[in-house]
Structure formats: C-alpha cells, structure tokens
Amino acid sequence: MAVEQFVEQGASYAECVQKARMKYGDRARVMNYRTIRIGGIFGGLFSREGVEITGYVSSTFSYAAVSGSGITPPARQGAQAAQPNLSGQVSQSGQTLDFEEEKKKLLAATVSAKQPDLTLQKLFNEVKALTEKIDANVHSFRGPSKEEHPTLERLEELFYQNDFSPAYTKTMLNRVRKEFSLDDLEDYDVVQDRVVVWIGETLRIYAEPPVAVQALPRRKLRILVLVGPTGVGKTTTIAKMAAAFGVDGWGRPPLKVVMITIDGYRIAAREQLEKYGSIMEIPVSYVSDEQELRKTIAFYQDDADLILVDTIGKNPRDAVELGKMKQFLDACGSSAEVHLAMAASTKYSDIREILRQFAPFNYRSLVITKLDETIRVGNVISALFADGKEVSYITDGQPVDKHIHRASVVRFLISLEGFRIDREKIEAIFPSAGEK
Ligand SMILES: Nc1nc2c(ncn2[C@@H]2O[C@H](COP(=O)(O)OP(=O)(O)OP(=O)(O)O)[C@@H](O)[C@H]2O)c(=O)[nH]1
Ligand SMILES: [Mg+2]
User: Where a domain ends, among 147, 166, 191?
Assistant: First the structure.
C-alpha cells in the first residue's frame, strides 16, 4: 500500500505543522524537520531562516498523541551532531543510540514506500520498535550525569524557535547547567524566569546624548547619520525620528530638526523625504557632494538642535561604494553619531556580515527596523551580543507618525516567543536607559 508523504515549509515548526494539519488533519505524522533558507536575493542574501518538515499521512493506525497538538516535534536534523549532550542518549554498553540515524532510516523507508512490500503496518512496527528502544534506553540506562534535563531540552527548543544562534544558545544552556542543581532544574518556571533576565543582560542599550539645552548661549548640535543596506527603512526611520524629536518631542519640548539626504539624485527618494518634510514642516536639504554637506551643516549650525542625515542604501558587499560614502559622510564631523539600520528579519549570519562591512563607518549603535515583520528576535539579540553592539532605536510599522521607539531591553524581551514574561518584574530590573 502506498504511503502518502508530505513536505511543508514555513517560518516556524508550528507553522509547518499547522499547514500539514490543515491538509491532512490528525493523520499527519511528522518524521523530521530541518532549517532551510526562504526567499532572499543574490544567492540567499537577506533570506530568512525557515523550517521544512517531512512526514507522512497515517491511514490505518494512530498512536497516542503525546502533545496537545497530536504531533510531537521530532528532534531537529543535525541537532545531535552539533550538540551531542543535548539529545544523545548513552546506552549501558556505552554506545550512543543514534536517534537521528534511526529516524533517517525510517524516513527512507517512508520515502521508498511506493514499493509494494512496505505496508503501513510494517512502518508502524518499525516506529513501535524504535519507540521501545528509546524508552528502554531512557528509562533503564540514563545515568544522572549523562542525562539532559527536560528543562534544558525545553529551553533549547525555545532558543531554537526564537532564532537564537547556536553559540548564544550554548552559552545560555551552559550557564543554566552551571548555576542550577539538578533539583533546581525541576522548577522550569524559575529557571526560565532567570534565563529571560540573562537574555536581557546581554542587550546593550545606547544612551542618547543630552538634548540641546535651550538656555545655553550656543546650542549643542546633534548630528545623527543613518547608514545601512538597501531597503531596510532608513528614509522612513529618518522621517519617524524627525516626527518624534521635532513634532512630538518625545516627552520633551520639540527640537528644531533638519533633514538632509545625500540621496538627492534619486527622484523618488527626494520626493519621499520632501513629502514627510512638508507635512511636518521640517526643512529638507539635498546635498550631492562633501562640500555641500559641510556647507549645509554649517548653515544650520546655530539654529538647529538635531540634523538627521539620510543616506543611500548600499549593498554591504560593495566595499568601493561603501568607501566613497564613508568619505562623503566625513563632512559631518567626528562628533556625528552614525547609526546602522538593520531589518529585524535579517538572518543571523547576514547581520554579522553587515556589521562587519559597515564597520568603517564607526557606527555607534544599531537601529532595528521592521520589528513588526518578524515574531523572532533571537537572531538580532545573538548578533548584537556576539559583536558587543548597542541598539538605539527600533521601528515597528510603516506609518511615520508613530512606530519608532527608543530601544529597551523590555521591548526585546516581550517579543520573545514561548517564554513566560513577567513584565512588571523585568521593567523593574531593566528600567529605560535614559540619557547619558
Ligand atoms: N513593516 C514595516 N515596514 C517598514 C518599516 N520601516 C520602513 N518600512 C518600509 O520599508 C520600505 C523601504 O523603506 P525606505 O525607508 O524607503 O528604506 P530605505 O532603507 O531608505 O531604502 P533605500 O533608500 O532604497 O536603501 C518602505 O515600504 C517602508 O514603508 C517598519 O518599521 N515596518
Ligand atoms: Mg532611502
């Protein structure tokens, strides 16, 4: 009898399972899953990490569902190879029972199930035998020192779901192993509460320089330059900052803001900023070379509190273009704050690469854009941690009159999926950064 197989792709394991369940209902059996790249350009740049599940549709039997969904997540492909302590089980004889290998065999059997001799019953028997083998191994032979506590397994899965990097996950799990005894690990909620705080502690929030003090004879001009890859939302963010600082005031009297773009030669880009400028009654200047930029800044030196400089999106791989722009921006002076804009959905390895490519700009901090477009922030948190970078602002929507916020640890923590967040507690631990 032929076995109907399926392959589903999605942003998360849960989404794939949902798709499979929509199509096949409770008969869907997931055999394996792995991470894949979805979308992107130029051979994967800016693609997002996704999940692909492989399974089959059960038609003659059903085994007891052990989770609420009726589908139990199988171990992730490759997880054991990367972190043997997390999923490998050691038998009495000292041999590692290779669950991945067993599953692969089973999957291979499913895939080749078009052969007339492989019936679902045979498959069932194999699943049963494997289950018994695993049970026997787990219950009889796991020594306490070799055992990976279920709390650690649950946490590892959460880190994975939230897109944290393997290195970040490993660091956190090692800390859990070090700081909690086996007894303490029994209380999952206590452990996960502490892990949430540790995650928060890895975030570094940029402290804004003091606002211009109107009473001083001469205002201290703040120049904020936004650089970053193409299309991440730089121009929109500049307009949002202009609205926040220049119209709303962000909790203080509004500042005198000026927007400058060095993207004047692209008509659409000019019109984009001009439109925002005219609505907010905030001046917009276009400059085409360093001299013009220097002159424009000098012109507003005594009158403006904040100059926001929008730049042309650059392919981070184009070192020559980046070099030219860097030279151009030197006209802003050494006190100018350069911030690097990065879309929240950028995958971990690309974030690391972009951080490196834009390093010559000496950016002080990151602006994380489009937070509304992803439900996972582990990639960003892991990359910021790996490179010791700070985050200054976040944006989470297209309209410019809102959807920009000063970055806060709390904002990142409440974006975590699957972690129980005690907001009051984390707000007490991580108050807003404020000014320098
Ligand atoms: N969902 C969402 N979309 C955003 C956000 N910020 C910007 N966008 C959208 O992203 C798209 C690109 O925005 P731009 O501001 O033109 O991006 P840019 O970085 O200036 O682009 P280039 O100048 O071409 O490099 C637009 O459709 C914006 O509306 C955000 O926080 N959330
Ligand atoms: Mg732009």
Answer: 147
Output the DSSP codes for 155-187: HHHHHHHTT--HHHHHHHHHHHHHHS-HHHHT-
> Which ligand 1 atom minimizes the distance to the CA of 314?
25
Q: Is 240 in the pocket of ligand 1 (CB under 6 A)?
A: no
Q: In this model, does residue 141 exceed pLDDT 50?
A: no
- Same domain? For 77 and 102 the reply is yes
Nearest to 205 by CA among 49, 5, 432: 432
Residue 436 in domain: no
Question: Domain containing 198: what range?
Answer: 149-202
pLDDT digits (tens, 9 = 90+) for 376-402: 999 999 999 999 999 999 999 999 888
What are the two backbone dihedrals, phi and then psi, of residue 82, each rounded to the nearest 5 degrees?
A: -75, -40
Domain boundary among the residues 167, 202, 237 is at 202
Report the nearest atom of ligand 1 relative to the CA of 396.
31
> Is any ligand 1 atom within 6 A of the Cβ of residue 50?
no
Percent of all residues in the chain with a pLDDT value above 70, rounded to a whole number: 74
For ligand 1, the distance from its centroid to the CA atom of residue 232, given in whole angstroms, is 5
39 within domain boundaries: yes
> What is the position in ligand 1's atom list of the atom closest to the CA of 236?
15
Mean pLDDT of 165-183: 95
